[in-house]
């Protein structure tokens, strides 16, 4: 495992956790899969650190076996047929590794004919499923990685996928401009925030997105379908769904820098997949880990990390706009209920609707915010609401400020009074399903409360800065995707006998796009690294909601304006980069044959969702004013 990991960017094996070791295996496995198709997975890789090894017994699964059962690693390269790992890696100029026993096996006839006809397959089609009459190519084989036995923790879900779907919209990959290569901006970050481990993580996600997501981005957008069966469990197997979740719950226990790295690479391949990932891993899982009880974490986080379940956050409502707190109408009332066993249990009855809920139609776990009028009191202390960021909520009379309570709900247990209403037909981010959720007096037990009753505002506010920071990596991926399209185009497109990339005005356009991306990337990862560093120093980033700080860590408060500034600038720059990309392609940029129009539609969401640009400017200005006043 060590030599294979080194060949793909890792400098040394993980030393401090079994979960990171699992990520190491997943990274090695997904990189190794570059050399053989889904129906030719066999052999093993030795783990020289622990003395164990992983054997790829079939295309469905891989299991850990004893060292004495060691067999050579059989590798299939689309370019060179079956050969050693050393030979394949050297030919691809990835790097040399220790020699492996050569295993000569005839090339399957269907794949041999394909190689003779087309030579090297184009990027984005290397993992295309082979439909061949040859007995060596099975039509039921999957091009996706096998499901990890490690990541299968958690209860089964009605939505869980045991095998990739054969839907027509998914089985025909389209052209992709995502080449999966390193970018110039990587060199800028190298040595600052990108150490060897982070570079390895980024390379792994980049390779996965290149092969499994980018070829289907246009199909996802056109069909407006969330590829849960085809993709979500595989992201869980890769380990990225729980990248910032503690090791004890099946996550990797990493920080915001790693979270942003994953978000950027997924968004580069498909912004809609990146958005669904952010809503799942950040908006839902991070809230549960920070404020959930031990029982809630043990029950909910493992299946969310593994991709068995999908998570969502339900806060926005129809007509509320930016006045989320002041205009919230969904309410929860304390009610007792007699169970089937005759036991009288106390709980809450939730009534209302939520709108604009990302991942709503697919969600198995939803974090819901509701007003609790029974807890509101005209004389109640407003200390926990002192940091509320919505400008409109501060205009409410103090005696009428709402008391919110956060709930974490398993949708399968809510019964018929909970339903998914209209699925929204959006301009962009199609494939990241968004809908309206209806709660018609849905009863939930007391243990569904996230945090403490009446302190939902602090639960919400404590996660907003991290939400802005992680989501700001989405526009980074869109800007890089724009360059992925434009740079090859300006080399190939000829005008007046020369490539248009040689024209000064076109080079100026490229300079503007790259400058915006480089500045945004440096700003994003600089803030993320600073927050991670301070979090490690202070230990617990989020005090209990009942503490004197009301769930808002005063030391992290100074990064609030930076997190808002990052997403403000990144969102607006991404929209401008997409417009520049369309202009660079001319008429081709205006048709759907190229992804520039889709990237523009996707980029615009980040100027509206998770707080509009106007609200972000108000927040930044207020934070700067209050900080300057406090220093006098």
TrEMBL record:
It comes from the Eukaryota. Keywords: FAD, Flavoprotein, Oxidoreductase. One of its GO terms (biological process) is L-leucine catabolic process. Its cofactor is FAD. InterPro entries: Acyl-CoA_DH_CS, Acyl-CoA_Oxase/DH_mid-dom, Acyl-CoA_Oxase/DH_mid-dom_sf, AcylCo_DH-like_C, AcylCo_DH/oxidase_C, AcylCoA_DH/ox_N, AcylCoA_DH/ox_N_sf, AcylCoA_DH/oxidase_NM_dom_sf. Residues 312-385 form the Acyl-CoA oxidase/dehydrogenase middle domain. It holds the Pfam family Acyl-CoA_dh_N. Residues 132-143, 151-165 have a biased composition (Low complexity). Residues 456-624 form the Acyl-CoA dehydrogenase/oxidase C-terminal domain. GO terms for molecular function: acyl-CoA dehydrogenase activity; flavin adenine dinucleotide binding. Residues 109-165 are annotated as: Disordered. Belongs to the acyl-CoA dehydrogenase family. This is Isovaleryl-CoA dehydrogenase. It comes from Cyanidioschyzon merolae (strain NIES-3377 / 10D).
């Amino acid at each position: 495992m060590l030599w294979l990991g080194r060949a793909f960017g890792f400098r040394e094996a993980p030393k401090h956790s079994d979960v990171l070791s699992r990520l190491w295996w997943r990274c090695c496995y997904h990189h190794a899969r570059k050399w053989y198709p889904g129906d030719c997975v066999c052999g093993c890789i030795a783990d020289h650190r622990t003395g164990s090894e992983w054997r790829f017994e079939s295309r469905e699964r891989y299991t850990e076996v004893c060292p004495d059962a060691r067999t050579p690693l059989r590798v299939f390269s689309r370019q060179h047929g079956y050969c050693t790992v050393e030979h394949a890696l050297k030919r691809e100029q990835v790097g040399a590794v220790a020699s492996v026993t050569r295993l000569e096996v005839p090339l399957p006839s269907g794949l041999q004919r394909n190689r003779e006809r087309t030579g090297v397959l184009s990027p984005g089609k290397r993992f295309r499923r082979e439909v061949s009459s040859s007995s060596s190519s099975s039509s039921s084989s999957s091009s996706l990685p096998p499901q990890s036995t490690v990541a299968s923790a958690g209860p089964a879900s009605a939505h869980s996928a045991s095998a990739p779907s054969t839907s027509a919209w998914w089985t025909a990959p389209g052209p992709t401009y995502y080449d999966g290569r390193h970018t110039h901006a990587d060199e800028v970050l190298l040595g600052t925030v990108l150490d060897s481990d982070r570079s390895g993580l980024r390379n792994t996600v980049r390779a996965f997105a290149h092969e499994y997501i980018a070829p289907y981005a246009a199909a996802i957008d056109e069909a407006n379908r969330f590829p849960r069966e085809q993709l979500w469990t595989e992201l869980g197997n890769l380990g990225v769904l729980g990248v910032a979740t503690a090791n004890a719950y099946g996550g990797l226990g990493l920080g915001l820098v790693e979270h942003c790295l994953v978000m950027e690479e997924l968004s580069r391949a498909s912004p809609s997949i990146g958005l669904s990932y952010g809503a799942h891993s950040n908006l839902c899982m991070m809230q549960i880990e920070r404020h959930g009880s031990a029982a809630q974490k043990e029950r909910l986080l493992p299946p969310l990390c593994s991709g068995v379940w999908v998570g969502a956050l339900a806060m926005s409502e129809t007509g509320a706009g930016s006045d989320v707190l002041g205009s919230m109408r969904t309410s929860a009332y304390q009610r007792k209920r007699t169970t089937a066993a005759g036991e009288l249990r106390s709980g809450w009855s939730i009534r209302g609707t939520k709108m604009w809920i990302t991942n709503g139609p697919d969600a198995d776990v939803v974090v819901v915010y509701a007003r609790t009028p029974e807890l509101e009191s005209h004389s109640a202390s407003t200390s926990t609401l002192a940091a509320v960021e919505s400008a409109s909520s501060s205009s409410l009379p103090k005696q009428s400020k709402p008391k919110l309570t956060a709930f974490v709900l398993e949708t399968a247990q809510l019964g018929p009074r909970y339903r998914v209403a209209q699925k929204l037909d959006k301009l962009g981010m199609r494939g990241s399903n968004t809908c309206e959720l209806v709660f018609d007096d849905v009863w939930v037990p007391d243990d569904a409360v996230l945090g403490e009753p009446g302190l939902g505002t602090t639960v919400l506010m404590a996660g907003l800065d991290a939400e802005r920071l992680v989501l700001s990596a989405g526009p980074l991926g869109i800007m890089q995707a724009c360059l992925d399209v434009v740079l090859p185009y300006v080399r190939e497109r000829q005008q007046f006998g020369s490539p248009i990339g040689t024209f000064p005005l076109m080079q100026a356009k490229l300079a503007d796009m790259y400058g915006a991306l480089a500045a945004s990337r440096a700003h994003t990862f600089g803030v993320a690294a600073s927050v991670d560093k301070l979090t490690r120093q202070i230990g617990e980033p989020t005090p209990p909601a009942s503490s004197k700080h009301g769930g808002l860590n005063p030391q992290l408060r100074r990064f609030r304006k930076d997190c808002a500034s990052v997403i403000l600038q990144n969102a607006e720059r991404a929209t401008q980069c997409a417009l520049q990309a369309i202009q660079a392609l001319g008429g081709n940029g205006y048709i759907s044959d190229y992804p520039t129009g889709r990237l523009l539609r996707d980029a615009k969401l980040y100027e509206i969702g998770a707080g509009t640009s106007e609200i972000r400017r108000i927040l930044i200005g207020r934070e700067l004013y209050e900080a300057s006043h406090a220093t006098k």
